[in-house]
Amino acid sequence: MVSPSLHATPTARDTAPALVTVRGLGIRYGAKVALQGVDLDIRRNEIFGIIGPANAGKTSFLRALNRMDEFVPHMQIDGTVTFAGRDVRTIRNLYALRSHIGVVFPLPVGLPLSIYDNVALSPRLRGERSKAVLDEIVERCLRRAALWDEVKDRLQGLGSLLSGGQQQRLTIARALSQEPELLLLDEFSIAVDPVTTMRIEEVLKELRRELTIVLVTNLVQQARRLADRTAFFLGGRCVEITPTERMFSGGATDPRTADYLEGRFG
Amino acid sequence: MSAILFIAGIFLFIGSQGMEFAWNRLSITELLFGDRWEPTADPPRYGAWPLIAGTAWITAVAMLVAVPLSFAAAIYVGEFAKGKQREWLKVLIELLAAIPSVVWGVIGLQVMGPILQSVFGLQSGLNVLNAGIILGLMAAPIMTTIAEDALKAVPESYREAAEALGATRWQVVRKVVLAHARPGLSAAVLLGIGRAFGETIAVLMASGHRLMPPGSVFDSAATITATIAAELGEAAVDGDHYQVLFVLGLVLFLITFSINLLADWIVRGRRRA
Amino acid sequence: MTTVPSPFLPTAHEAGAYRWQSLVRFLFLSLTVLLLVPVLGILGVLVVEGAPAMTPSFFLDKPSKLGAAGGIWPALVGTIWLTAVALMVALPLGVAAAIYLAEYARDNWLTRLINLAIVNLAGVPSIVHALFGVGAFVYFLGFGESILAASCTLAVMTLPVVIVATRESLQAVPKAFREACWNMGASRWQTIWNIVLPNSVSGILTGLILVVCRAVGETAPIMFTGAVFLRMVAPESVFDRTMALSFHLYTVSTQVTEVPRAIPFAVALTLILVVLSMNALAIWFRMKLRGRKKW
């Protein structure tokens, strides 16, 4: 048991059923093991940070959550992952699952559609036809992704022709347009300048009221700024999960975490 | 180098064989619009309109058959099929492409002909429909291959990004992949047309080879290619008839040449953009 | 927020999209199968109708009654001659052109023109090749109607296939191999000869097999350049005219009356067996190539 001093009174968030529960998760690519024995819960409306060096299995973990495994040849998922009470491995309609989970990949992919259509794609897939509603969604999502001011005069321009940082924000806007219950961010700031990163981080803090975020980041300080709890992944295992404040104030339970935080490896 | 040489050579040889006659005694208007092809009559008539019309009809039917089949096959093989099933389908499509045209001709003559005859109650099953179906099946594999290449050229990351949004594979294909692959798909249709258009022996055997413009798909018809094949052996070397067949060959060459250039231009135009 | 949320369920719209996608998928599979039914259907019909006529004497006898009876021996041998000579012409030319294009040519207007010419050469209708063959080989070069003229025509027609297949396999050899070889001081040609060519043999063989398929199957280009309706003996030199399987199939199906139904089917079956087995070989080579490419 962890000491109760930091969270003296359990909040509603702590007792509500978890949005995602992971038990004994293992991921293999053919014979190569990417992740093993991961148990964790992701609570509703928290920002769950995942830090760790390259090849720790962070991205594989995200792929298992929204079942993007079929794009990776030979990817094999063991154990159970439940999303909102359903084991994702038993869901046949994966598209429905994915439409409830937004993803931002580390390398941005602007679809070869106009900026407007990029953001409007997901609402349209949901069957939204009203131009007024779509306009509203596009503007709101682009604003939240801190992109609106840069592109509002050229919404019909091709999304794939934006700069890397702009495409990254377009991808975030697109993920938000799904109105997801769960947002997976995989090193989103890799292609974005520091000022924009800070603006997006502000948005993420606000979004916490509406949805749940899993933030995989290579920036330890970003996890510190945003995450409620942080998990440290190393070599395909989840080494520890600790409330962020405690982890960064010397309360890491595993010495390897402390080493990583202090930059001794990784 | 040799390729250019041969292309130029083909053009020159065919041109030179027909030119003397074409310059001096042939009216281009009659060749293109004259509706009677009677090269052995006296006086001979060289109106190629029946052949042009026959070629157009048969090619059109062929494309009606080939476009849906080959695009469906390309989308299925490229976007839906996986692993072993995909490999097998690709092998079968290649085998389809490997069947020699004279064998297709026998199928048209001996199998498809009687079937059409009894299904539609016709006097002869050798008609535009028969030749069109046969040609469609012949052109479909190459069109499938080109169309699949065009789909394959769409980056996988687009599919992944769109599916991450919750799009079904079909929605991805419809909204993202097809839009991106359109130039390649047009090129596939063009090359299919070129293929159907230039096919000789199968058409000669399946079309009934009647030298009249067809009025419906159930009429027999003749194509430019089949006419050359049927008459070259009988025409006296360097006679008018012989030369007019070379002129037809030149027309064919120029048409397929422009189709190929157009297809190449479409594909390259996209790459530059 | 404290109420227990309902478990994840697709919305009605998402369920609809999923059903629609399954339906579309099934539709496309059906169309694909519809396209492939003819392959199996044709094979089936040919085997059922043609196999009974395929006795040893069918292959080894001379034709009689204009092909309505007897065998196909001269046509069989003729096809082998035509194919072999076509290969001897097309292969060296094609491989040389491919080596030039893959190893020496820079990306300039000339290369672009050559590539364009290759694409166009591949698209020229076979009957136009026949006209070219008549004009160039039969009369201009004075080969007369002969195996040589017919084979040259076939070679010109199949040249693009050889060039493309060979060029692709040459380009598939990693640049690092070449650079390693250059670093040892080998000349460009030594590199090609010792490193590149041995690594692309499968590609060249694939091209070769495809040429054989085309050469065996084509009718129009040989009709007026060297194939004859009937010739009782097998050819003895490249200046002879010859029977050929494909042309024989054409004549027995269209020109000769009162041919027993089984004869054309048996000839067609023979033809298709040759072509399909050649293709199977080509596919096998390609798989081997792909397997080995995990250098």
Describe this protein's structure.
The complex is a heterotrimer of chains A (266), B (273) and C (295). Chain A has helices at 12-15, 58-65, 94-99, 115-125, 131-144, 148-151, 164-177, 194-207, 220-226, 244-251, 255-261; strands spanning 20-29, 32-42, 47-51, 75-83, 86-87, 101-104, 182-186, 212-216, 229-234, 237-243. With 266 residues, chain A is of the alpha/beta class. Chain A has a domain at 15-100 and 183-189 and 213-261: P-loop containing nucleotide triphosphate hydrolases (Rossmann fold, 3-Layer(aba) Sandwich), CATH 3.40.50.300. Residues 1-10 of chain A have low confidence and may be disordered. Chain B has eleven helices and two strands; from the N terminus they run ααββααααααααα. A two-stranded antiparallel sheet of chain B has the order 1-2. In chain B, a hairpin with a 6-residue loop joins strand 1 and strand 2 (45-46). In chain B, helix 1 crosses helix 11 and helix 3 (49-80) packs antiparallel against helix 8 (169-198). Chain B is globular, with a radius of gyration of 21 Å. Chain B starts with a helix and ends with a helix. The relative contact order of chain B is 0.16. Chain C is an all-alpha fold and 295 residues long. Chain C has two domains: 12-53; 56-292, MetI-like (MetI-like fold, Orthogonal Bundle), CATH 1.10.3720. In chain C, 73% of the residues lie in helices and 1% in strands. Chain C contains twelve helices and two strands; from the N terminus they run ααββαααααααααα. Chain C has helices at 12-50, 56-60, 73-104, 109-123, 126-140, 147-171, 175-183, 188-199, 201-217, 220-223, 245-254, 262-292; strands spanning 63-64, 69-70. Chain C has a two-stranded antiparallel ribbon with strand order 1-2.
Radius of gyration of chain A, rounded? 19 Å
Give the strand content of chain C. under 5%
Mean pLDDT of chain A: 87
CATH topology of the domain at 15-100 and 183-189 and 213-261 in chain A: Rossmann fold
CATH superfamily of the largest domain in chain C: MetI-like
Q: How are the strands of the biggest sheet of chain C laid out side by side?
A: 1-2
Which runs of chain C of at least 5 residues are low in confidence (pLDDT < 50)? none
**Helix/strand order of chain A:** HEEEHEEHEHHHHEHEHEEHH
Structural class of chain A, by secondary structure, is alpha/beta
